[in-house]
C-alpha cells in the first residue's frame, strides 16, 4: 500500500510542481500505518539524519556514542552528506551510513527531482528497517529537507529541534512567517527546544537524551579513524619525527573566516626563528593547495609540510592526531583537533567589541569555541565598517578576509609563545 500511495503522490507532485504538506500527509500517513510503520513497541532501530558539514558532525559525535550506549542492541543508521560520510564509515557505533545531498533538493527547480531522489533512498533502504526513532540534531537555519526526510523515512517517532520556538526564545522580536512552521507541524515531527542557556553545539545534541528520558555518561567529542589512516599519516610525517609538529589550518568554509596567508607567513617565519624545531603541516583540499604551496615556497626549506590535496578527510584527521598543536582558522579541522585533545590557537573573525543582539544564535565563537581542550583565541579588537552594526552569524559577512585581517602576525607569535609556556605547565585545560 505504501508504494502505491507514494507513487500516486509523486505523480501529482510532478504535475503540480507544488509540495503541499497536508496533501502529502493525508496521502501517505494511512499507508505508513497500514504497513506497520506506526505499530507501538520498544526502540529496536534508530535513524539519525544530519546533512551539514564536518564540524557539525564532530559536535554530534557524543550523541552518537551515547545513543549507542543507551540502546546497545538497536540497529543504528545515519543519513549524512557525501562530504561527511567517510568520517562515519569507521564509527564503531553505527551499523550503516547512507548519503543524501541536500543541494539536490534546495534551490529553484530542484523540488521535484530532490523529492524523487529522497523517495529512492527511502524505498531502497530506509523503509526496510521500519525505524522506531528518527532524530535530526541540526538546530538553526532552514531544515525543510531534513524534516521531509525524517517523515519519509517512515520512522514511528520523529524528533527535531523546533524551527520556530527557538527563534522566539533566542531572537525575541523576529517575525515568524506562517510557512516557517509547516514542515515540522504538518509532518507530526516532535518539536524539541533546548534551554536558552545551552549554547555550545557540543552540548545541544545531547539534549535529545533528556527528552527521551536517558542520560549521557560523557559530553566528550570523538573522531573515528582506522589503522590504515593512522599508518599513512605516520608514514608522511616519519621524516619529521623529531620535530615539533603544528597543524596549520588555513582553510575555512567562508572567506571571512580565512586569515590572510601572508599574515600566517610572517608569523610562521618568526615562530621558526624562535622555535627552530617547529614544522608546520598543511592539510586540506584544492581551496588550500595554492596557499600551501605559497607557504612552502616562501619559508625556509623543509619547514612547511604541504599535504594539501594528498589526504582524505580521515587521513587529514590522522595527521592532526600526529601533531602537537593546531594553529589556524575556525574550520572543521579545528574541531577535529579539539576532539582529539590537541591544543588549539584559534584565529577568529569575531571582534571583541562586537555586541550581537542574539549571541546564543549569531555568535559562532560562543557556539563553536574549541571544546574541552587547551586553547587560546585571537580576535580583532573591533569590527570594521558596516560589521559594527551587523547582527548576522559570525559578525562579519564581507565575502573576503575582513575583520579577521586586523589581527597582526605579532599576536599569533605571542599566542604561540604563551601556548608553549602552557604546554610546559599545563594548568589550563580549556573551556568545557
Structure overview:
This protein is α/β, with parallel strands linked by helices and about 425 residues long. It folds into 2 domains: about 1-210, 3-Layer(aba) Sandwich (Rossmann fold), CATH 3.40.50; about 225-425, 3-Layer(aba) Sandwich (Rossmann fold), CATH 3.40.50. Helices cover about 40% and strands about 15% of the residues. The chain is built from 17 helices and 12 strands. It has helices at about 1-15, 20-35, 55-70, 85-90, 110-125, 145-150, 165-170, 180-185, 205-210, 225-235, 260-275, 285-300, 315-320, 330-340, 360, 365-370, 410-425; strands at about 45-50, 75-80, 95-100, 135, 155-160, 190, 245-250, 280, 305, 325-330, 345, 375-380. The strands form 2 sheets. Strands 3-2-1-4-5-6 form a 6-stranded parallel sheet, with helices on both faces. A 6-stranded parallel sheet has the order 9-8-7-10-11-12, sandwiched between helices. Helix 1 runs antiparallel to helix 2, helix 10 packs across helix 13 (about 315-320) and helix 11 (about 260-275) packs across helix 17. The longest helix has 17 residues, at about 55-70. The radius of gyration is 23 Å and the shape is elongated. Mean pLDDT is about 90; it is low at about 165-180.
Task: Walk me through the topology.
Layout: H1 2-16, H2 21-34, E1 45-50, H3 54-70, E2 75-80, H4 85-88, E3 96-99, H5 111-124, E4 133-136, H6 144-152, E5 157-161, H7 165-170, H8 182-186, E6 190-192, H9 207-211, H10 227-237, E7 244-249, H11 261-274, E8 278-282, H12 286-298, E9 304-306, H13 313-322, E10 325-329, H14 332-339, E11 344-347, H15 359-362, H16 364-368, E12 375-378, H17 409-424
Parallel strand pairs: 1-2, 1-4, 2-3, 4-5, 5-6, 7-8, 7-10, 8-9, 10-11, 11-12
Amino acid at each position: 500500500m505504501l508504494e502505491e500511495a507514494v507513487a500516486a503522490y509523486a505523480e501529482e507532485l510532478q504535475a503540480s510542481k507544488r509540495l503541499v504538506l497536508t496533501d502529502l500527509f493525508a496521502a501517505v500517513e494511512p499507508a505508513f500505518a497500514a504497513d506497520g510503520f506506526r505499530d507501538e513497541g520498544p526502540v529496536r532501530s534508530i535513524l539519525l539524519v544530519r546533512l551539514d558539514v564536518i564540524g557539525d558532525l564532530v559536535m554530534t559525535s557524543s550523541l552518537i556514542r551515547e545513543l549507542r550506549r543507551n540502546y546497545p542492541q538497536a540497529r543504528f543508521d545515519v543519513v549524512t552528506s557525501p562530504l561527511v560520510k567517510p568520517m562515519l564509515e569507521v564509527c564503531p557505533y553505527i551499523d550503516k551510513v547512507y548519503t543524501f545531498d541536500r543541494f539536490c533538493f534546495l534551490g529553484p527547480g530542484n523540488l521535484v527531482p530532490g523529492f524523487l531522489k529522497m523517495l529512492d533512498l527511502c524505498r531502497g533502504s530506509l523503509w526496510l528497517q521500519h525505524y522506531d526513532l528518527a532524530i535530526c540534531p541540526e538546530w538553526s537555519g532552514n531544515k525543510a529537507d531534513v524534516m521531509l526526510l525524517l517523515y519519509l523515512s517512515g520512522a514511528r517517532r520523529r524528533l527535531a529541534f523546533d524551527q520556530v520556538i527557538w527563534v522566539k526564545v533566542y531572537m525575541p522580536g523576529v517575525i515568524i512567517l506562517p510557512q516557517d512552521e509547516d514542515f515540522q507541524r504538518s509532518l507530526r515531527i516532535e518539536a524539541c527546544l533546548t534551554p536558552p542557556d545551552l549554547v555550545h553545539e557540543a552540548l545541544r545534541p545531547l539534549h535529545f537524551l533528556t527528552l527521551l528520558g536517558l542520560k549521557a555518561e560523557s559530553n566528550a567529542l570523538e573522531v573515528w579513524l582506522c589503522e590504515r589512516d593512522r599508518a599513512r599519516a605516520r608514514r608522511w610525517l616519519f621524516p619529521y619525527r623529531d620535530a615539533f609538529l603544528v597543524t596549520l589550518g588555513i582553510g575555512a568554509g567562508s572567506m571571512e573566516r580565512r586569515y590572510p596567508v601572508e599574515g600566517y607567513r610572517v608569523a610562521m617565519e618568526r615562530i621558526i626563528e624562535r622555535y627552530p624545531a617547529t614544522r608546520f603541516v598543511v592539510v586540506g583540499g584544492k581551496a588550500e593547495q595554492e596557499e600551501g604551496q605559497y607557504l612552502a615556497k616562501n619559508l625556509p626549506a623543509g619547514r612547511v609540510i604541504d599535504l594539501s590535496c594528498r589526504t582524505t578527510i580521515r587521513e587529514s584527521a590522522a595527521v592532526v592526531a600526529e601533531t602537537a598543536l593546531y594553529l589556524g582558522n575556525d574550520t572543521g579541522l579545528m574541531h577535529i583537533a579539539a576532539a582529539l585533545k590537541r591544543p588549539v590557537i584559534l584565529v577568529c573573525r569575531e571582534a571583541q567589541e562586537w555586541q550581537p543582539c542574539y549571541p546564543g544564535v549569531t555568535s559562532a565563537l560562543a557556539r563553536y569555541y574549541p571544546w574541552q581542550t587547551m586553547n587560546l583565541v585571537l580576535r580583532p579588537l573591533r569590527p570594521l565598517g558596516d560589521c559594527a552594526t551587523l547582527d548576522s552569524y559570525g559578525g562579519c559577512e564581507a565575502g573576503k578576509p575582513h575583520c579577521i585581517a586586523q589581527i597582526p602576525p605579532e599576536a599569533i607569535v605571542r599566542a604561540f609563545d604563551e601556548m608553549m609556556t602552557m604546554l610546559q605547565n599545563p594548568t589550563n585545560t580549556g573551556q568545557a
